[in-house]
Amino acid sequence: MKKEKYLTAGQFAKICGIPKHVLFHYDDIGLFQPIYVNEHGYRYYSYHQFDTFSAILNLKKMGMSLKDIQSFLQQRDPHLFLKLLDEKFEEVDHEIQQLLSLKKMMKSMKESTLFAVTHEEEEICIREYPEEILLCSNDLENSSSKNFASFMEEYAHFCRENHVFTQEAVGCMLKIDKIKNQDYLDFSYLFMIIDQQFDQNTYIRKKGKYLCGWHKGNYDTIGQTYQKMIDYAALHQLKLGMYAYEEYLIAEIAQRDHDQYVTYIRMEMDPD
């Protein structure tokens, strides 16, 4: 055997784009061994082994553990390889959907934050919105058996089961009659905006005009903003609908100071 035909561990590792200690570890566990070890313990590899090592790297990229790779290599054949690929196709498709959902969530968070920083100083106004689908929690208002934390846990579990990423802060719906009675904590539903309906827990927020306001500050003072909106509606003889919607545009993840939080409020207006 002529040593010049072989590559040192350092040379082989450099060709493969990995640290040298990875080769040593794979050798120790019996996954990938050098073709020759001299009397001083130096490892040498053949360029023919590059294909085998590339296969190991590709199997790792597919998410296989070193133990599973070792098992596969010991019993591999074309039929087993095809079965493996079919399994990995399903896993990759699932990961793609998860990443697309994550990207969509990030886009939503960016848009809501930009909306807040560019509008938070605006006065109360009327805006028109298209029809939207809301994914809602179960009814909080008419249940005495569960506390708010339980509903949050149940709602988060429902979202995960339906592969819906919860945003930084889930919105809340409360009845305008409650607001008029200065009851700002008796929420009816938790909600988030989605693109498709489910068999349960969906609510259509109708197309139309909404009375809108921005509350800047801690939630403890949100009653002041609600009162301004109620006064505005009375002054302009606006007939309000059933629900108000709170969306937390700037909150914990984007702002350290609670007094700088921004909550966007939309109140339904009666089209009649």
Task: Provide a brief overview of the structure.
The protein is built from eight helices and eleven strands.
Describe the protein's architecture and organization.
The chain has 272 residues and is α+β, with helices and mostly antiparallel strands. 42% of the residues lie in helices and 22% in strands. The protein has helices spanning 9-16, 20-28, 49-61, 66-75, 78-119, 148-161, 176-180, 222-235; strands at residues 7-8, 36-37, 43-45, 125-129, 132-136, 171-175, 189-194, 202-205, 208-216, 240-250, 262-269. The protein has an 8-stranded antiparallel β-sheet. The protein has a 3-stranded antiparallel β-sheet with strand order 1-3-2. Strand 2 and strand 3 form a beta hairpin. Helix 1 crosses helix 2 (20-28). The longest helix is centred in the middle third of the chain and has 42 residues, at 78-119. The termini are far apart. The mean pLDDT is 87.
